[in-house]
């Protein structure tokens, strides 16, 4: 483990930015986060999930595609959160019903959002909010 960490650290310091960036995303080098138990639901960019004015743009102004998390305003845009069964994603959206200990994860289709359902999960909120 120690040898692996030394190799990754060397990669971050001495390799070109594209390779070093990949090494920085290694789990061993990510900052520790706070584990919280949260109610996690799912949504898609459709009008049924996002309302009649849905246009496929998140509250942060980015397109609603890929892995995105909607979180309460108390969690800054750009904060990374790891959700079991979904993976690691950034908070880039808000939602009217997303308050307190709630998160909403973006799914590519309405069917997948419905299949996700409502889950109570232990998520890891990284302490280094911001992009």
* Strand percent estimate: 25-35%
Name the structural class.
Answer: alpha/beta
CATH architecture of the largest domain: Beta Barrel
Number of strands: 6
Can you put this structure into words, describing what you see?
- Residues 1-13 and 15-24 have low confidence and may be disordered.
- The chain has helices at 2-14, 17-24, 47-50, 110-116, and strands spanning 33-43, 68-70, 80-83, 87-93, 102-106, 119-126.
- The two termini are 28 Å apart.
- A hairpin with a 3-residue loop joins strand 3 and strand 4 (87-93).
- The protein has two domains: 1-30, no CATH class; 32-126, Barwin-like endoglucanases.
- The protein has 131 residues and is α/β, with parallel strands linked by helices.
- Strands 1-5-2-4-3-6 form a six-stranded mixed barrel.
- The chain is 24% helix and 29% strand.
């Amino acid at each position: 483990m120690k040898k692996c960490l030394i190799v990754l650290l060397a990669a971050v310091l001495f390799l070109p930015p594209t390779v070093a960036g990949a090494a920085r995303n290694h789990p061993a080098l990510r900052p520790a986060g706070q584990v919280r138990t949260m109610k996690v639901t799912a949504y898609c960019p459709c009008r049924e999930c996002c309302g009649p004015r849905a246009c496929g743009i998140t509250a942060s102004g980015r397109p609603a595609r890929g892995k995105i998390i909607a979180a309460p305003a108390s969690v800054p845009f750009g904060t990374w959160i790891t959700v079991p069964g979904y993976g690691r994603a950034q908070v880039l959206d808000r939602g009217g019903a997303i308050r307190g200990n709630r998160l909403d994860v973006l799914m590519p289709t309405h069917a997948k959002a419905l299949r996700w359902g409502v889950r109570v999960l232990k998520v890891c909120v990284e302490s280094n909010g911001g992009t």
